[in-house]
Amino acid sequence: MDKLKIEQDIVKVLKNIYDPEIPVNIYDLGLIYEIMVSDDAEVEVTMTLTAPNCPVADELIENVNEEIRDIPGVKDVSIKLTFEPPWNMEYLSEEAKLELGML
Predict the structure, then answer these.
(1) At 11, which helix (H) or strand (E)?
(2) CA 1, CA 7: separation in Å to the nearest integer?
(3) pTM
(4) Which end of the chain has fewer beta carbons closer than 10 Å to its terminal beta carbon, N or C?
(5) β 76-81/42-47 pair status
(6) Domains of the chain, start order
(7) What burial class does residue 25 get, using C-beta atoms within 10 Å of its C-beta: 0-12 exposed, 13-18 middle, 19+ buried?
(8) DSSP conformational letter for 24
(9) Least confident of 5-14, 25-34, 49-58
(10) Is residue 64 within 8 Å of 48, Cβ to Cβ?
(11) Residue 39 C-beta-side C-alpha neighbours within 13 Å
C-alpha cells in the first residue's frame, strides 16, 4: 500500500467535488483541512463548510465519503466536520481566486 499514492488520489477526487453554490471544487475552496492515511489504508478527512447552516452539508459530506471509499486500496473512511477555525476567503487557493475573478 502506497500512502502517498492514496493521498494523491484523494486530492484528485476532491478536486472533482464542487460546492453547488460556488463554481469551485471543495479542495481549492479550502474546505479540506486535513487528510490522514493510516498504515492500514484507513482515511480520515477533516473538513469544514463555507457556513454552518449549509443547505447541502449532508449531501456534500456523503459525496466526499463515497468518492474516497471508491479509491483502490482505501479500507475505510472517516469524515470529521469542524468549524474551528471557521472557513473564510483566505483559504481559497490561487486557482479558486482566479476562477472567482479575485485575481
Answers:
(1) helix 3-14
(2) 11
(3) 0.92
(4) C
(5) parallel
(6) 3-87 (3.30.300.130)
(7) buried
(8) S
(9) 49-58
(10) no
(11) 0
